[in-house]
Amino acid sequence: MRIDKFLKISRIIKRRTVAKEVADKGRVQINGTVAKSSSTVKVGDEITIVFGNKTLVVKVEKLQESTKKDEAKEMYSIVSETYQEDR
Question: What pLDDT is stored for residue 52 in this prediction?
Fold first, then answer.
C-alpha cells in the first residue's frame, strides 16, 4: 500500500493530498529511509512523520483498503511521540 494512502486510511493525516505533500517534502521516513508519497508500506514497517514541532513514530500493524473511524487505530501502534521546544 502507498504511504500516502496508509496515512489517510489510518487517519494519521486526514486528507490524502496533505499526506502526499508531507511525504514529498521529505518529512516521512519508512524504517529510517526518506519516503516519497508513492513508497510502499508493509506490516511491521516503522514510519516516522514530522509535523512542525511534533515527531510521531508508528509501527504498521495491519493494512486495510478502507476503515471505519473506530477501526483506524488498529492499523498502527504508536512507538513514540515527541515535541520540539520552540527556541
Answer: 86
